[in-house]
Amino acid sequence: MRPAILTLVLIFSLCLAAQAADYDTGIDAYSRQDYRVAAANLLPLAAQGDARAQYSTGILYQQGQGVLQDNALAWFWFTKAELGGHPRAVQARFQLESIMTTQELEQARKYLQE
């Protein structure tokens, strides 16, 4: 039984390391202004619930970097990051809301309900 537990711990640790590597790869690509690579690495992590990746994905959508610019999706990802405890997500969402149209906010709230 102990070897099975040790194996599970090792597998879990490797998964966390791979996830961190994808996040780091995404952030490194962002810093090099390679936004498509950043999006390719960050979007899957954001979908898996990584608050750091959700916040960064919100920035990508807000700025239209590596993805089509979309305020509703940016708001969605900032909100998900906020719910995940990201410290800067609340401010980012409020700043974005101040420039969003009523239609964009309605669409963003629909995304959150899906």
Summed up, what is this model?
This protein is mainly alpha-helical and 114 residues long. It is built from six helices and no strands.
> What is the residue-averaged pLDDT?
87
Stretches where pLDDT is under 50 for at least 5 consecutive residues are 4-14
Number of helices: 6
Distance between the termini: 41 Å
Main sheet attributes: strand count, strand direction, barrel closure: none
Structure, described:
The protein is mainly alpha-helical and 114 residues long. It has six helices and no strands. The protein is globular, with a radius of gyration of 16 Å.
Secondary structure elements and pairings:
Blueprint lengths: L1 H30 L3 H13 L3 H13 L7 H13 L5 H9 L4 H12 L1
Helix pairs in contact: 1-2, 2-3, 3-4, 4-5, 4-6
List keywords for this structure.
6 helices; 114 residues; mainly alpha
